[in-house]
Fold:
Amino acid sequence: MKIDLTDTTASKVNKALVQGRRAIGTPAVGMVLTLVIVTDEENAYDALKAANDASREHPSRTLLVVKRVSRSPRDRTTSRLDAEVRVGADAGSGETVVLRLYGEVVDHADSVVLPLLLPDAPVVVWWPVNAPLDPAKDPLGALAQRRVTDTYAAEQPVRELAARADAYTPGDTDLSWTRITPWRSMLAAALDQVTCEVDAVEVEGEEFNPSCELLAMWLADRLDVPVKRSLSSGPGLTAVRMRTSTGPITLDRADGSLATLSIQGQPDRAVALKRRETAELMAEELRRLDPDDTYASALRYGVERLTASAARDASAPVSALALEPAKRETPAESSDRATPALMPPVKKAATK
Structure:
């Protein structure tokens, strides 16, 4: 069921939501969170489709905020809110409200969204494109417990990571980090199978791919060994090679779907590592709404090392620079800020 509202208010949108639920025979609200999507008209359809697919796992009220840029000076001074309310089969497993903002109201989107948030439920804000440099200080981002960006959509993804590190606030995350979850799980499981010392790592993937950079940062942060970043034609991440005291460990994915895990002394194994759709990535992010401390640690550590490497070798591409281990803090120095990781860290096993 769809209800169109032109030149409306947030109060009328709320009444339309109640009217729509009664019309389809579900007056109760059974949603677990509010998902706010901030995008432009060009990317609105794809973002809303991904959110609807993710809502089958996480029933939510989805508020799609489309900021329309007026071309004429006269239209810029005319504030208007148009809304489209969707309930039932047209809204996945929750409710959807498409909000189109015109004129001065574009700068006050938070005042439109605030009355439409579900009471006593978490709020997640997602920017599929054109995310602010500091999501937590954005008026809409300030309403949320979790803020999701996608560095892959930026013009300079690797440079964008530096801005994310500088402005990081607990609750920030990025879909480029979510894309490497299967890789991190597989590499951690591979190291659990052998007793060895890791000496060096090589991460191979597309140039200027933020997921490749984040995986290299995570490995450098957790293993405290040099991590070389090499380039390939893709798609995305193609291989991770670890040099250990018992022989090489390689996770190679040349076709973007099926990978081969090779461990010295063991038969090669085929591993499913397909490139996931945006809906799957969002469904994973919505499973846990607490701060991702592992992401924060890898991002800050890796960006610091990248910046230092770039200063030493200004002629090399940033995405091809090696991450060298930094001087570690002593336990006494780091005890005040130590936080538990969402995923068990990859550790170097002691040599027998």
User: Anything to note?
Assistant: The two ends are 66 Å apart (CA to CA). Residues 195 and 208 are 34 Å apart (CA to CA). Residues 2-149 form one domain.
